[in-house]
Task: inverse folding
């Protein structure tokens, strides 16, 4: 049996496995583990699995496997969850953390006043096509794909951003794959549909690569949507409030870097059944 903790950041939910001292799932089984246990009918149910592991240079390392078994480089909502878990379990007692990810180390500041909040330095949004990645040269701003005007940026993972006057009635499961799998994005892209509410507030719906569905919230997607909004002068100022189906995030821009601030919550803890376990 394997101990797990179910957590979420604005409804973007995860199964967290603590491997800080002992490896619980062997490397070759991690992908299959995520596919089996993320299943919402036959497993625990989640958008992905977070593995908290030791790091040689930083406080600890975060790895994330999506519900389809693919490993992602980063997850904005996930990194807030793993920071909360580390503090709750006294893996660290520091309020300022440096967490290793496959996209590089990220600095996280935490605070708790009735509820847990974390502010994550998401780094500098990458607009160049070779950094997204996207085919061609220069930036990828307001490019025509299908009937949409599409912009793209990398905020830890690649994101496409599309502005619409109405995103509530959008059939995202039908429309997003046209962009997500477009040949212009050799590694695919997450797809964000954005409605500008005012000069410092946007509403976002995100279709996530690797989950292949809409999620209630996406941290890197919220940063990407805010970054593109600012780049195209659709919003003003350095703080943008992002409204997702799962809740609110604050995206702050300072010295060309983006900071994401939001909550994380523990839902429950449990153990996998021995019969269902696929680990050695």
Result:
């Amino acid at each position: 049996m394997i101990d797990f903790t179910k957590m979420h950041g604005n409804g973007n939910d995860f199964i967290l496995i603590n491997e800080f001292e002992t490896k619980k799932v062997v490397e070759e089984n991690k992908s299959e583990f995520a596919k089996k246990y993320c299943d919402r009918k036959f497993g625990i149910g989640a958008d992905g699995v977070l593995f908290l592991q030791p790091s040689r240079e930083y406080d600890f390392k975060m790895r994330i496997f999506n519900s389809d078994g693919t490993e992602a480089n980063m997850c904005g909502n996930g990194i807030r969850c793993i920071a909360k878990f580390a503090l709750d379990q006294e893996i660290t007692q520091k309020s300022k953390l440096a967490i290793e990810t496959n996209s590089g180390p990220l600095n996280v500041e935490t605070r708790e006043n009735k509820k847990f909040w974390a502010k994550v330095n998401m780094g500098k949004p990458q607009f160049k096509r070779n950094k997204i990645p996207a085919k061609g040269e220069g930036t990828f701003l307001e490019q025509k794909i299908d009937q949409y005007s599409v912009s793209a940026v990398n905020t830890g993972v690649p994101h496409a951003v599309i502005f619409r006057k109405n995103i509530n009635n959008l059939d995202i499961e039908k429309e997003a794959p046209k962009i997500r799998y477009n040949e212009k994005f050799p590694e695919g892209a997450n797809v964000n549909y954005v409605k500008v509410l005012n000069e410092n507030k946007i509403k976002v719906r995100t279709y996530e690569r690797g989950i292949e569905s809409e999620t209630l919230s996406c941290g890197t997607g919220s940063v990407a949507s805010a970054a593109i909004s600012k780049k195209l002068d659709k919003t003003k100022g350095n703080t943008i409030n992002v409204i997702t189906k799962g809740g609110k995030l604050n995206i702050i821009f300072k010295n060309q870097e983006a900071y994401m601030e939001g909550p994380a919550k523990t839902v429950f803890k449990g153990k996998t059944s021995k019969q269902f376990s696929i680990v050695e």
The two ends are 11 Å apart (CA to CA). Residues 76-88 form the longest helix (13 residues). The chain has two domains: 3-109+267-271, 125-255. Residues 125-255 form a domain with the Diaminopimelate Epimerase; Chain A, domain 1 fold (CATH 3.10.310.10).
